[in-house]
Amino acid sequence: MKTSKSENTKQLIIESTAAVFNTKGYAGTSINDLMSVTGLSKGCIYGNFENKDEIALKVFDYNFSKITQHMKERILAVDNSIERLMVYPVTYRNYYRYPYLQAGCPILNTATEADDTHPQLKERVQKALDFWKTSIVNQIERGIARNEIKENTDSNEIAIIMISIIEGAFMQSKVNNRMTELKIAMSFLEKMIMQLKA
């Protein structure tokens, strides 16, 4: 099925502005930024989207889907549940290899900005976190069922701790502009995951 010119333009705007929104945030991204990275006029941008809010929501969805797709491909490439959980520290330790993570994790970046100022973005972040947590819980439950992970493992607790370690380490790494904290945290996370082995 062919896509319309309007749909193509919308996708161009979303893909072109994804890194800008993730780097500068919602409040820090101006219409001039959007015009600059897309090469389109203000009229063309707002002829395809109602306002900056709509673009920001679509961009968050796009950025999150890039990470989700990346993780899904790597998780499904291995069968063992411990190896699947290891995909998280391996990916985040090497985040600089992935263009869509270089500006930081879109969940963390958006959460810190939208928690009180933008209810729709906050809701998107909540759903993304729920999705991420559920994905980890499902992998752990699968591992318990397959006798690869200790049966007394609290999957919900582990998922919350894993996300907290990853996001906290990411934040420190970005603020300090160095990899030290991230590498230390991901090594700790790898040890934690190995201790789940049945």
Description:
The chain has helices at residues 5-28, 31-38, 42-48, 52-76, 81-93, 106-114, 119-145, 155-176, 180-194. The protein has a domain at 60-194: Tetracycline Repressor, domain 2 (Orthogonal Bundle). It is built from nine helices and no strands. Helix content is 76%, strand content 0%. By secondary structure, it is mainly alpha-helical.
Number of strands: 0
Spell out the helices and strands N to C.
Answer: HHHHHHHHH
> Kindly, what is the distance between the CA atoms of the first and last residues, rounded to a whole number of angstroms?
48 Å
Strand content: under 5%
- CATH architectural grouping of the domain at 60-194: Orthogonal Bundle
Question: What's the oligomerization state?
Answer: single chain
The main sheet comes to: none
Helix content: over 70%
Stated plainly, the CATH topology of the domain at 60-194 is called Tetracycline Repressor, domain 2
At the first level of CATH, the class of the domain at 60-194 is: Mainly Alpha
Average predicted confidence as pLDDT? 86
Poorly predicted tracts of residues = none
Radius of gyration, CA atoms, in whole angstroms: 19 Å
**Could you give me the name of the CATH homologous superfamily of the domain at 60-194?**
Tetracycline Repressor, domain 2
Number of helices: 9
Structural class designation? mainly alpha
| Outline | elongated
